[in-house]
Amino acid sequence: SIPRLLEAHAAGECSAVSVARTILEPAGSGLTVKIHAVEVEVEPKTRWRVESGDMSMVLIQRRYAVSASHRLHLPELDDAANEALFGKCSNPNGHGHNYEVEVRIETRDSETPLSILAVDDAVNSLLIDRFDHKHLNLDVDDFKERVPSVENIASRCVELLREPISALGSDSRLHAVKVWETPRTACTVLA
Predict the structure, then answer these.
(1) Partner of 104 for a Cys bridge, out of 8, 34, 116, 175, CB 3.0 to 4.6 A?
(2) Torsions phi, psi of 104, nearest 5?
(3) Strand partners, 134
């Protein structure tokens, strides 16, 4: 695979998808274990996954950072009941997180590939500008009537991105959004 990759790079044909295919094709032959997919990380926080078979479907996974604060509480409960339910996450002044948001997009390998810059523009305008450095309960209408838990944040991200990602063309559609609240706590919502 390495000599083929070097040849492709020299010819200027070294996209993430072509790298994954170059690895997947020979790796799949002659092995007793079947390889189902190859994932290529082209830069930190961006991965391209090519599945075996006809290899026409590509899953692009790109991560973004959002810093925000929130308070987990239900307005119909008093402070003691909220603390019993949510613990220290119900602090009346809120608390903050450095969230990581991974947007997963399915696209077909086609003549007009999906533009990562267009994806970034959509995510920046619809998510980052909306949530970054905000108190989600107080500053963002999305969570005025909805508890800004990691599950609800991921769900809202899917709602906001589903149509704009499909509008980017190239047979693209939002596959899922995964939101990490902490390195140990995350939620994935499938689109």
Answers:
(1) 175
(2) -110, 125
(3) 68
Q: At what angle do helices 116-123 and 150-166 cross, to 10 degrees?
A: 130
Q: Give how far the C-alpha of residue 62 lies from the chain's centroid of Cα atoms, to the nearest Å.
A: 5
pLDDT of residue 111: 60
pLDDT, one tens digit per residue, over 67-109 is 999 999 999 999 999 999 999 999 999 999 999 999 999 987 6
Structure confidence by residue, pLDDT tens digits, 129-188: 999 999 999 999 999 999 999 999 999 999 999 999 999 977 889 999 999 999 999 999
- The alpha carbon of 11 is separated from its chain's Cα centroid by a whole number of angstroms, namely 31
Pairing of strands 173-180, 95-108: antiparallel
